[in-house]
Amino acid sequence: MTTQDAHARAENATDTAAAGKALGSHKGYLQGTRPDIRVPVRRVHLTNGKDVTLYDTSGPYTDPAIDTDVRRGLAPLRENWIVQRGDTEEYAGRELRPEDDGIKHTSPRGGLRNLDAVFPGRPRQPRRGRNGASVTQLAYAKRGEITPEMEFVALRENLSAEFVRDEIAAGRAVLPANVNHPETEPMIIGKNFLVKVNANIGNSAVTSSIEEEVEKMTWATRWGADTVMDLSTGRNIHTTREWVLRNSPVPIGTVPLYQALEKVDGKAEELSWEVYKDTVIEQCEQGVDYMTVHAGVLLRYVPLTARRKTGIVSRGGSIMAAWCLAHHKESFLYEHFSELCEILRTYDVTFSLGDGLRPGSIADANDAAQMAELDTLGELNRIAKAHDVQTMIEGPGHVPMHKIKENVDRQQEVCEEAPFYTLGPLTTDIAPAYDHITSGIGAAMIGWWGTAMLCYVTPKEHLGLPDKDDVKTGVITYKIAAHAADLAKGHPGAQQWDDALSDARFEFRWEDQFNLALDPETARAFHDETLPAEPAKTAHFCSMCGPKFCSMKISQEIREQHGATMEEVEAGMAEKSREFAAAGNRVYLPLAD
Amino acid sequence: MTTQDAHARAENATDTAAAGKALGSHKGYLQGTRPDIRVPVRRVHLTNGKDVTLYDTSGPYTDPAIDTDVRRGLAPLRENWIVQRGDTEEYAGRELRPEDDGIKHTSPRGGLRNLDAVFPGRPRQPRRGRNGASVTQLAYAKRGEITPEMEFVALRENLSAEFVRDEIAAGRAVLPANVNHPETEPMIIGKNFLVKVNANIGNSAVTSSIEEEVEKMTWATRWGADTVMDLSTGRNIHTTREWVLRNSPVPIGTVPLYQALEKVDGKAEELSWEVYKDTVIEQCEQGVDYMTVHAGVLLRYVPLTARRKTGIVSRGGSIMAAWCLAHHKESFLYEHFSELCEILRTYDVTFSLGDGLRPGSIADANDAAQMAELDTLGELNRIAKAHDVQTMIEGPGHVPMHKIKENVDRQQEVCEEAPFYTLGPLTTDIAPAYDHITSGIGAAMIGWWGTAMLCYVTPKEHLGLPDKDDVKTGVITYKIAAHAADLAKGHPGAQQWDDALSDARFEFRWEDQFNLALDPETARAFHDETLPAEPAKTAHFCSMCGPKFCSMKISQEIREQHGATMEEVEAGMAEKSREFAAAGNRVYLPLAD
């Protein structure tokens, strides 16, 4: 496919984004202390006149007042904030090369190409910290500064800006925001905030295309993805990423090793620090907000996987293990880690320290290899923080329920409470095609116990590349897990959503119940399958139980007919209870007292 | 619809059942001490020559050697066992009446009907304990007897028959097996056995028909439902139930109150002990294996629900609450509970003591109403056990994760470890259309913590009556939850399944991976969506990562190329570890020692 084809076809993605405009809610904004701090929210207008305000990840696409165009990209919301800080500079940037898109000089299909034309939107030059300065939210927080990004996040989470700053300064939270991705709406990842969800997209050598990936990104954020990782491994990696970044309202993560491997034709042993570093800079300049780096896969840990049931199941982990063994040398990622920190801090790229040795089966959970790597991630986390680089730690994979908590507890201890970012975990291996569910169970639990961000798993896991439906199913499943975790953690305000929906349910406000649902369209469609007529939308029953057996209807009638009596009895019981407490909560008085 | 129509259309259900014969596995049997004890298993023949044996709930339908016919019903597997015990007698039974099928004498559509013709299969008379004798598995277990049913279950669970007997005798497990449902393959419900799954079927006044319900039953058991509850509330309740029972290889549960309410035209206040008792006997004679009885909803508890967000959400609970308030009298189910025990023990019908006051929203979880009723269920459990009636206790509904464990712990304490049988719990209210997932999370957790059987929730919960697809999705989701719980409980043998599948995955035995999956058809279909060609079934990658990025492939290559080195290093590390341990696990020797 040519770049021109990609452009033409990527435009189709606009339709999808626009379709998001009618999701049973209205776009609203919370106003900050300066005019350009406007935090998007989803407002559900209820039929009883009340409003429910929900967190909104869908970006400008769901604002009918904004005319979006994937060829132009999103407006650079944060640009002024970045420029006004005065600590960055624009520069010429690394020269783009055909191999950035997986095209060899000798390729009969590609040949030399002008990669300046990868994206038709506004011209831009990359930006970086002046003279190697740390321009990270961590550096600002350590200095006690509250950035517009922090204020934005504070409004978004209904917490104070000081709290946001302190959590970032302590390394307990990250605010991924590359200076070259000014299109992002700031968000925060940390255990004392709402649990976040990441959705993976990306083509593979076997299937998928640029426009599909842009569409998957807008689609994933429409359903609630807080960040998106572009895990492309096929051709057009650079161009795909450019389109995704310029159109993404959420932070974008990548695994630079994938592109580096493409540059050496898929031969792990030919990887080198130079190729890797070049790729990292390429992606920093494009605006990638966080990067998975598998620097904890050390030569001496690889033998610990020898007797595993499923070996090394992380792509990055297996590539680095192959490199270490082929060269009988320590990982170049580990050896050059400080140098990597010095690069990332000049763009404010956040580390996601990869768990290359995560377990790929129930049998391998919490084993020596996994825990050894975690200790090294703890070491790297300290180094990164010392360099002012924001850092989160990746975890799990396949872990049975009784072994999940140990993962969080140990990570929190070893990594000084750095945000934990886990895949699943999958709580059993027996259900390919349903691994969004096997892992949604583990994700909810690990979120409750302190994981800050959950990496989704789609129904296609282990079987193939997810399509749009799979992305939606994965995101919805993980939004459920994240919200269940917020409830269990007692996150302030989390239960308001449940309460609003339950009120609507009990009062047979069907339209409100649909509009408050995580997926209004499907909830409405399921109801209408059996009772499509308009009067059913106000009926005091549904087809599940029918009119005579609707417990909510009977329950309401009880209140109407016996409400006064019930309150009387209840008051009487409360009085008895007070008397009992006043008497010392004892059924029998002790003999001698 | 006439009975004749129902007969004709119900035959279609045979096709579905037959379709179950090719599920990537073969029917096998474990032979007991007598020729007629043959325990069905699902044997998956792997391409590497090994066999994996899995628990099988699908009944004779998946045995190609057995010619099933829904008009004839299943063979009465347990009949000889029941007859040979010599403690039961056949008798004329209660006379069938048109109102048993919801047809009034004056009904213009129905009129008087010959209900003898409700099922065309073998003629049968109901059976009961001679002279009111207890013919329950609990009574036999208390006397130290091991019945063929217990031996069957012991083989099925790979445990000793003595253990099975002792768990039943202690009231920690139930083996639901009405003497009038000899078609069942015995199964056991208790925390020291595999976690079980119940699927609800049943028509409502709004939709559905007899043949659909028979088909849903065979469909649910094909995917792994251990019991099925027929919750029909519309017309043809009696006939639907007869068809379901005569064709069901798993225990059937009901809520007799639903049919009783139909007999009094849906007017809760017109219910009476007499109508209820008559309905219970009708269902005992048909062969219902367990009955939900909401005898814990006491008059004085109803006011405790007055300030709830969603009131009373159990159908049975709301009906009984309405009755209690209308009459200002204590529940007739509570008042006549001992009499009910005396009926149930002569058929070996198991109590499922209903949680009529379960919470219907996150806000109402673990509240005073719920816990007050649980205390009463504990009292009723003791009475039932004293009458030799097997008993389990129903629980949850909507409960956030951090409040789940309290439910099991308290139930186990109050109810002397009687099996807990819970709906979900749903861990959030915000996702109608995905409540199989919101509840699958809670179900896995509550199963881990000691719940013996999980009542499934389908995607249609709160929205409409589930269809066949919903039934399958609900069952698969709950099989995942149950198996995840078995793993977390360390149930002996549970992990073999995961290990076999993970081995197949690591060795790229795709066919084995599909056949070992909970849902082989969908796993295969998902894989084939992107790589349909036959060679892809042996390829060392799938479309998710493509050939260059397949971690399992790289991991295998590492083992092939560096296996010897890795084992050497590993052995060296183990040696070092032994030396370290021998030196007292101290890094530095203490100064004075």
SSE topology sketch:
Two copies of one chain form a homodimer.
Chain A: H1 3-10, H2 13-19, E1 26-31, E2 38-45, E3 51-55, H3 79-85, E4 88-90, E5 127-129, H4 137-142, H5 148-157, H6 161-169, E6 173-174, E7 189-190, E8 196-201, H7 210-222, E9 227-230, H8 237-246, E10 252-254, H9 256-263, H10 273-286, E11 290-293, H11 315-327, H12 332-335, H13 337-344, E12 350-353, H14 368-386, E13 391-395, H15 404-414, E14 420-423, H16 435-448, E15 453-455, H17 468-488, H18 494-506, H19 510-516, H20 520-530, H21 551-582
Parallel strand pairs in A: 8-9, 8-15, 9-10, 10-11, 11-12, 12-13, 13-14, 14-15
Antiparallel strand pairs in A: 1-2, 2-3, 4-5, 6-7
Helix pairs in contact in A: 1-7, 2-7, 5-6, 7-8, 7-17, 9-10, 16-17, 18-19, 19-20
List keywords for this structure.
3-stranded antiparallel β-sheet, 593 residues, 41% helix, 8-stranded parallel barrel, alpha/beta, homodimer
Describe this structure in words.
2 copies of one chain form a homodimer. Chain A is α/β, with parallel strands linked by helices and 593 residues long. Chain A is 41% helix and 10% strand. Chain A contains 21 helices and 15 strands. In chain A, the strands form 4 sheets. An 8-stranded parallel β-barrel of chain A has the order 8-9-10-11-12-13-14-15, surrounded by 6 helices. A 3-stranded antiparallel β-sheet of chain A has the order 1-2-3. In chain A, strands 4-5 form a two-stranded antiparallel ribbon. In chain A, helix 2 (13-19) packs parallel to helix 7, helix 5 (148-157) crosses helix 6 and helix 18 packs antiparallel against helix 19. The radius of gyration of chain A is 26 Å and the shape is globular. The N and C termini of chain A lie far apart (91 Å). Chains A and B meet through helix 9, helix 11, helix 16, helix 17 and helix 18 of A and helix 9, helix 11, helix 16, helix 17 and helix 18 of B.
